[in-house]
Amino acid sequence: MSFQKENGAFVRSSRAGGWGHLLGDDGSGYSIGREALRLALRESDVCSMRKYSSAAAQPTSQLAEAVFDHFKEQFPKSKLEDLLSTVMMPKSASQQPKDAVMDRTSRIAGVAKTVLAMVETNADADRIVAAGADKLAELAALLVLHQGIEPSKASLVLAGGLMQDEGYRRRIVGSVEKAGYKFQHVEVVDQPAMNGARFLLRSAQMLQ
């Protein structure tokens, strides 16, 4: 999203992306976790096929193994050949459908930390993270290009849990600058929801 100052207050001027995990959220924890899971699930399918046909087990990739270990810690009874069930299953039979969807979304997004931790040592993780950073840079470029924003006079604010990862922040800023947009200032907001709540509270107190 982009904001501009009007009458001493910041108001949203436009947005690019951020359509939710089903349609967008490129570069988010969910999208990074999803890509790693897709890789792991392909290997899970192969494992299941070979087990069914009594063929010798095939070594899994480092990233797929790390993803499986991530879920194994949470669900000790999970099996590599049935990783999809582990990812998709509800916490309990009585869990409400809406809660189950939110739980699965959080479960998938949680894989992102595993991926980020492997960036320096694993080519698959590096590729996934680099693609995420490039996608976010593309969105920033759209906002700049189509609104006539002058980056040298504007700030780039990175908000959200993944932005606490210094390596990922550097990649995003690097991708933005590679596209030709160097912002005057880059700032990281660690808890946007909490900061927003505090702002609303202060605003309400001022009106009393």
UniProtKB/TrEMBL annotation:
EC number: 2.7.1.59
Pfam family for this entry, one: BcrAD_BadFG
SUPFAM superfamilies: Actin-like ATPase domain
InterPro entries: ATPase_BadF, ATPase_NBD, Euk-type_GlcNAc_Kinase
Domain of life: Eukaryota
Family recorded in the similarity comment: Belongs to the eukaryotic-type N-acetylglucosamine kinase family.
PANTHER family: N-ACETYL-D-GLUCOSAMINE KINASE
Protein name in UniProt: N-acetyl-D-glucosamine kinase
Species per Swiss-Prot/TrEMBL record: Beauveria brongniartii RCEF 3172
